[in-house]
């Protein structure tokens, strides 16, 4: 299996000498520059320079609450730029200061919090100092970010209690426990008030389910004699048998897992039919075909060659699909001390549900000093509240396919638009190159149409007389009324074609499950929810086009 999910980003920690310094009468806070391998290294530095945002700040100038808040705005703006991804960069306009996305905002604030907290520890600042005030302001911003509303957790059921007790026996330290949340199913509830920087979960390396565990099991010899097996396939196969072993070290962990995963990979014919005409339907079908091809390449051959290691009753197509969904949904990329990266199942961390405003973001590196995987809180979570993790900046198509849930008004639902830009006329080609008018563009719901997209379409829709006379910047200047109408009419045609397969009957209620609906129709309901979310995104950008067209 070559694609596993829930990949945690690696926390890049600068040394204290690089991050902040006390020099003579200066108290410097230094934001780390873009990494040399960052593909936007030069763009970020150029934008910081244009906006007069340095990477070093002398905090001796902080005097009073108002000054601290002013400094905080500049620090956050610089940190936002440093944390930009290529997609976020595409949507930035000249006057856009952020926030650029939920991910960008929490990463920027988290980087600042680490920086200021480290400086506080270094100089042992007093509570009344400006630096202490700045730290409180940063934490206030972090804790003030939007949170997913969840009802209080219900009573812990026996399976969840057994899971927590089992984890403790394995040496897993956890400030969360397994609980049920309405609308989310099982999740992780904070057992105490968590503050920024608190250790949420600490898992010993030997409690991780990894490729090493599979190879060191009695299945190891068969794995070694089958060179075409990747490490990720090995743990898949190991999981298929281990879930049935009541004597396994991980028996209680497997017992607490869902017997059936409700992800897009498990859609039946009716669910796929409901998605007919959407791009995600093709993605699901291709993913299932890939998994099925992989299974057929392994079985029944392995069962015939190693009947005791791969008994047929445990290695059916249904169990293989279950294992794939398990690892797609719960697998975390972990970097081990020896430098290798393996996909692992991480007990207790698997309980953390996804949110675009999470309490935990950075993980996936084994701590060399004590051989544990540690998850820290980036912002506070009250006792009894659900503690969330970020699975990444994932669109609903990916969440549907590999996780089986959706985020309403998902800010990462990006609609790609690939333009066929003209290149025959030298002046048009010159405009395209001069103003960096790309052929690949994007739109997102409930946001203005990107200037880059409109500029590209203006150039593409130019007529001969306009090509000969136009001397301005197409990003800021309308070429002509006719040209402008062509731009928005072409966009409307594009969005109408994308909306066509998403249209629903007026009496459909895809976001709620009626009492008469059979539970076996979960895939149809999820498909309808997906289509409704996509329809709302496209309708929002279509409405913008209609508004712009009416003003031309």
TrEMBL record:
Keywords for the protein's UniProt record, in alphabetical order: Methyltransferase, S-adenosyl-L-methionine, Transferase
Family annotation (Gene3D superfamilies): Rubisco LSMT, substrate-binding domain (3.90.1420.10), set domain protein methyltransferase, domain 1 (3.90.1410.10)
UniProt cross-references to SUPFAM superfamilies, sorted A to Z: RuBisCo LSMT C-terminal, substrate-binding domain, SET domain
GO molecular-function terms, A-Z: methyltransferase activity
Entry keyword Transferase: yes
Domain SET: 185-392
Protein name: SET domain-containing protein
Organism of derivation: Riccia fluitans
Organism classification: Eukaryota, Viridiplantae, Streptophyta, Embryophyta, Marchantiophyta
């Amino acid at each position: 299996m070559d694609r596993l999910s829930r990949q945690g980003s690696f926390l890049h920690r600068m040394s204290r000498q690089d991050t902040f310094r006390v020099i003579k009468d200066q108290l410097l806070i230094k934001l780390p520059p873009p990494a040399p391998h960052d593909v936007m290294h030069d763009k970020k530095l150029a934008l910081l320079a244009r906006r007069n945002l340095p990477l070093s700040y002398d905090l001796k100038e902080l005097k009073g609450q108002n000054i601290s808040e002013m400094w905080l705005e500049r620090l956050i703006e610089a940190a936002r730029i440093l944390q930009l991804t290529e997609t976020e960069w595409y949507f930035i306009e000249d006057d856009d200061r952020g926030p650029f996305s939920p991910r960008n905002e929490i990463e920027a604030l988290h980087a600042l919090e680490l920086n200021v907290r480290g400086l506080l520890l270094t100089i042992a600042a007093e509570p009344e100092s400006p630096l202490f005030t700045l730290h409180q302001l940063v934490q206030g911003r972090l804790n003030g970010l939007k949170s997913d509303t969840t009802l209080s957790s219900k009573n812990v059921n026996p399976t969840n209690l057994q899971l927590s007790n089992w984890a403790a026996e394995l040496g897993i330290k956890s400030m969360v426990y397994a609980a049920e949340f309405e609308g989310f199913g099982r999740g992780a509830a904070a057992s105490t008030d968590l503050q920024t920087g608190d250790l949420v979960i600490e898992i010993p390396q030997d409690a991780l389910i990894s490729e090493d565990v599979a190879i060191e099991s009695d299945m190891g010899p068969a794995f070694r004699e089958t060179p075409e097996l990747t490490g990720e396939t090995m743990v898949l196969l190991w999981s298929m048998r281990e879930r049935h072993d009541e004597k396994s070290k991980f028996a209680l962990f497997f017992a607490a897992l869902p017997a059936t995963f409700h992800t897009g990979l498990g859609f039946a014919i009716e669910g796929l039919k409901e998605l007919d005409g959407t791009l995600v339907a093709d993605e699901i079908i291709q993913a299932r075909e890939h998994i099925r091809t992989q299974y057929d390449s392994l079985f029944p051959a392995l069962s015939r060659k190693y009947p005791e290691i791969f008994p047929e009753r445990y290695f059916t197509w249904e169990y293989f699909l279950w294992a794939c969904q398990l690892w797609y949904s719960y697998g975390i990329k972990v970097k081990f001390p020896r430098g290798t990266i393996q996909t692992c199942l991480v007990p207790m961390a698997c309980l953390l549900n996804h949110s675009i405003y999470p309490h935990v973001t950075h993980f996936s590196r084994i701590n060399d000093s004590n051989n544990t995987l540690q998850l820290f809180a980036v912002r506070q979570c009250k006792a009894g509240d659900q503690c969330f993790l970020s699975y990444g900046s994932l669109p609903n198509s990916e969440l549907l396919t590999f996780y089986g849930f959706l985020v309403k008004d998902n800010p990462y639902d990006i609609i790609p638009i690939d333009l066929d830009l003209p290149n025959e006329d030298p002046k048009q080609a010159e405009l395209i190159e001069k103003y960096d008018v790309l052929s690949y563009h994007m739109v997102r719901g409930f946001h203005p149409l990107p200037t880059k997209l409109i500029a590209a379409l203006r150039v593409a829709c130019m007529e001969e007389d306009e090509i000969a006379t136009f001397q301005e910047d197409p990003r800021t200047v309308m070429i002509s009324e006719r040209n402008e109408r062509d731009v928005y009419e072409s966009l409307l045609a594009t969005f109408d074609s994308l909306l066509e397969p998403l249209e629903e009957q007026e009496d459909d209620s895809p976001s709620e499950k009626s009492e008469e609906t059979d539970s076996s129709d979960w895939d149809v309901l999820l498909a309808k929810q997906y289509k409704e979310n996509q329809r709302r995104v496209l309708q929002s950008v279509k409405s913008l086009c209609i508004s712009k067209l009416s003003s031309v």
